[in-house]
Design a protein that fits this description.
Blueprint lengths: L1 H5 L4 E3 L9 H11 L4 E10 L7 H12 L7 E7 L9 H11 L10 E3 L9 H7 L3 E5 L12 H9 L5 E3 L19 H12 L3 H18 L4
Parallel strand pairs: 1-2, 2-3, 3-4, 4-5, 5-6
Helix pairs in contact: 7-8
């Protein structure tokens, strides 16, 4: 970790909802997350695109990882609802309820909603419970349509600039002719989000870079 930090990296340690590890893996995880060099716990969360018989285990794993949470780490959350477009916020809302009742999270926790695809109906509810939340967007938003995803688009348009982050989620969501994504393609995420918000992509890239620095380096709320 020291060599990564020396090159400007910020360290996050997580237990992805699609991960099924051994007891040895869990011991390694708890050792890593207790390190003072670790800035964030994540990704953790729920992924409803998996078979329903895995959902309860995912919830148990998320509860278990939250038990390791110290007072400072940023909480990085992964959420994917099922492909049923009638319930796009179900997974995020379930995470919200679990976290609001967990004693180690707390209302003032710095939170990063990774690859956020929630609707405008969810966003105010989330911020009411966790006001120090940042919302990350990838170029996946290019697939949103006014017909099928109007509430998701509205959430992006109404999001406060100081709460926004841009992500590539490399190697996924390739764009610009690239088969696989890399951090170097972050500008494509800025381009797609800027198109939705009717803002210059370069301005958005600058704002979100400042937000990321404030969250992960300075450890300050939005």
């Amino acid at each position: 970790m020291d060599s990564w930090i020396a090159h400007g990296a910020v360290i996050a340690v997580g237990w992805h909802p699609l991960t099924s590890g051994t007891e040895e893996d869990w011991q390694r995880f708890t050792t890593l997350i207790s390190s003072p060099e670790v800035t964030a716990l994540g990704e953790i969360g729920l992924d409803r695109t998996e078979q329903p018989d895995t959902w309860f285990t995912q919830m148990l794993n998320m509860e278990k990882t939250l038990s390791t949470l110290g007072p400072k780490p940023v909480l990085v959350l992964h959420s994917r609802s099922s492909k049923d477009t009638q319930t796009p916020d179900e997974s995020w809302f379930t995470i919200l309820q679990m976290h609001r009742n967990h004693p180690k999270v707390g209302r003032d926790r710095l939170v990063h909603c990774h690859c956020f695809t929630g609707t405008q109906a969810l966003t105010p509810r989330w911020l009411e419970e966790f006001p120090n939340t940042y919302f990350g967007y990838t170029n996946l938003v290019r697939k949103f349509s006014e017909k099928d995803d109007a509430e998701k688009l509205e959430s992006i348009r109404r999001m406060e600039p100081g709460r926004m982050l841009l992500e590539t989620d490399a190697p996924y969501f390739g764009n610009g002719g690239a088969r696989r994504n890399t951090p170097a393609l972050l500008g494509y995420a800025a381009l797609e989000v800027g198109r939705i918000r009717d803002e210059p992509w370069k301005d958005l890239l600058l704002i979100c870079s400042e937000n990321a620095y404030r969250l992960y380096v300075q450890g300050q709320p939005s």
